[in-house]
């Protein structure tokens, strides 16, 4: 009887073609075109790698391009390639003034590109960086210059709005999000907005109220959708920027704008979120820093730069969170997230969990500034609601 041979099937002990090769792989062929192993006769599962490219497209992954959602290539590369935003002095608004009701302009990615090539965008983002720099290595309770405009007017307005929440209890309803009593609060806030602005403005700038009010009222969420997100938070930063351009607040006030005014704003927004169950507006879900906020992570990471003991990984230490959350915005954000989200932190907040592995706060801060520019200021769904007038000009 003739012996029949079959060289096309692998021996029984060979792994399937998709298996990982063993560490002692003996499937080494002498030619790239060889179809079988020279030693055992089995098929080669893994072709030789291609020769190195003379123009490699590989980009080293650096913070914060970690754990981004599906199809993250464009966003990841955009963050990596974005230079770290730098501080820029606010350009004062010079007379003659032409105050007008600000309007929405951005509706496409081309508009975003145009906005980001403008001096308006550079100056606004530079202002945000200046606020971050002003609180660098400072606790919230550290003494700082506090002008009457900050203490009596800005902080006073935030405290008044907090008192409105106490006076307007949530309506009984079964839905998880969107308590309709928020609309009552929003209506009351809006009805007081112009008088709040006139308290801030000197007589020669009283007409600026028509421009400031829309930024102010859009800072606290949307009354129709009963939601809040980073776009509304950006409007609050834009409102402060307008006050800086009008020289109502000056550079000496920047630390107080963060440690006194923004802290009160954050207290108000958390109270609104908990009392009226505001829906996150355009949330990234687990792929975002937080369902609602971005700026306190920027300011808070700046506070912790060069701290002797607290590192990014310290957010996992409950004793540190308990003892220092009242002094550091970043830690207070982590505490609030753990309060409203149950379960394993790495599962409901993977981005923040990954950031905790960054070696120092300086890298966290610079990475977050780049991320803010790309993930907030360059997103049409967010920036389509941004307003432009004579103070923040559309160029």
UniProtKB/TrEMBL annotation:
<keyword id="KW-0697">Rotamase</keyword>
<dbReference type="InterPro" id="IPR004327">
    <property type="entry name" value="Phstyr_phstse_ac"/>
</dbReference>
<feature type="compositionally biased region" description="Pro residues">
    <location>
        <begin position="9"/>
        <end position="20"/>
    </location>
</feature>
<dbReference type="GO" id="GO:0008160">
    <property type="term" value="F:protein tyrosine phosphatase activator activity"/>
</dbReference>
<comment type="similarity">
    <text>Belongs to the PTPA-type PPIase family.</text>
</comment>
<dbReference type="GO" id="GO:0003755">
    <property type="term" value="F:peptidyl-prolyl cis-trans isomerase activity"/>
</dbReference>
<dbReference type="GO" id="GO:0005634">
    <property type="term" value="C:nucleus"/>
</dbReference>
<feature type="region of interest" description="Disordered">
    <location>
        <begin position="1"/>
        <end position="58"/>
    </location>
</feature>
<dbReference type="Pfam" id="PF03095">
    <property type="entry name" value="PTPA"/>
</dbReference>
<comment type="function">
    <text>PPIases accelerate the folding of proteins. It catalyzes the cis-trans isomerization of proline imidic peptide bonds in oligopeptides.</text>
</comment>
<dbReference type="InterPro" id="IPR037218">
    <property type="entry name" value="PTPA_sf"/>
</dbReference>
<protein>
    <recommendedName>
        <fullName>Serine/threonine-protein phosphatase 2A activator</fullName>
        <ecNumber>5.2.1.8</ecNumber>
    </recommendedName>
</protein>
<keyword id="KW-0413">Isomerase</keyword>
<dbReference type="GO" id="GO:0000159">
    <property type="term" value="C:protein phosphatase type 2A complex"/>
</dbReference>
<keyword id="KW-0963">Cytoplasm</keyword>
<dbReference type="InterPro" id="IPR043170">
    <property type="entry name" value="PTPA_C_lid"/>
</dbReference>
<dbReference type="GO" id="GO:0005737">
    <property type="term" value="C:cytoplasm"/>
</dbReference>
<dbReference type="GO" id="GO:0007052">
    <property type="term" value="P:mitotic spindle organization"/>
</dbReference>
């Amino acid at each position: 009887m003739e012996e029949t041979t079959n060289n096309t099937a692998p021996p029984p002990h060979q792994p399937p073609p998709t298996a990982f090769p063993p560490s002692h792989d003996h499937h080494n062929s002498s030619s790239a075109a060889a179809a079988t192993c020279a030693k055992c006769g089995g098929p080669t599962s893994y072709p030789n790698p291609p020769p190195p490219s003379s123009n490699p497209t590989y980009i080293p992954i650096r913070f914060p391009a970690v754990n981004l959602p599906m199809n993250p290539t464009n966003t990841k590369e955009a963050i990596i390639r974005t230079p770290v935003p730098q501080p820029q002095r606010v350009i004062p608004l010079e007379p003659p003034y032409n105050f007008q009701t600000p309007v929405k302009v951005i509706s496409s990615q081309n508009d975003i590109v145009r906005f980001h090539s403008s001096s308006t965008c550079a100056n606004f983002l530079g202002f945000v960086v200046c606020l971050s720099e002003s609180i660098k290595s400072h606790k919230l309770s550290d003494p700082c210059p506090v002008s009457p405009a900050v203490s009596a007017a800005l902080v006073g307005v935030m405290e008044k709005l907090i008192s409105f929440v106490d006076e307007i209890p949530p309506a009984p309803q079964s839905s998880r999000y969107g308590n309709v009593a928020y609309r009552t609060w929003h209506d009351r806030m809006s009805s007081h907005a112009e008088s709040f602005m006139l308290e801030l403005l000197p007589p020669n700038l009283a007409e600026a109220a028509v421009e400031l009010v829309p930024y102010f009222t859009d800072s606290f969420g949307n009354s129709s959708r009963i939601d809040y997100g980073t776009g509304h938070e950006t409007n609050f930063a834009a409102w402060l920027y307008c006050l800086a351009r009008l020289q109502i607040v000056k550079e000496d006030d920047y630390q107080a704008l963060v440690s006194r005014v923004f802290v009160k704003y954050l207290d108000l927004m958390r109270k609104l979120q908990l009392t009226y169950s505001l829906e996150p507006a355009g949330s990234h879900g687990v792929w975002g820093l937080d369902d609602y906020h971005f700026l306190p992570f920027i300011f808070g990471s700046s506070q912790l730069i060069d701290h002797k003991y607290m590192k990014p990984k310290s957010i996992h230490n409950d004793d540190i969170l308990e003892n220092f959350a009242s002094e550091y915005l970043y830690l207070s954000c982590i505490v609030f997230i753990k309060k409203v989200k149950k379960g394993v932190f790495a599962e409901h907040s993977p981005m923040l969990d990954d950031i905790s592995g960054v070696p120092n706060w300086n890298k966290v801060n610079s990475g977050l500034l780049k991320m803010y520019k790309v993930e907030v200021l360059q997103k049409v769904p967010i920036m389509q609601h941004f307003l432009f007038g004579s103070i923040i000009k559309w160029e």
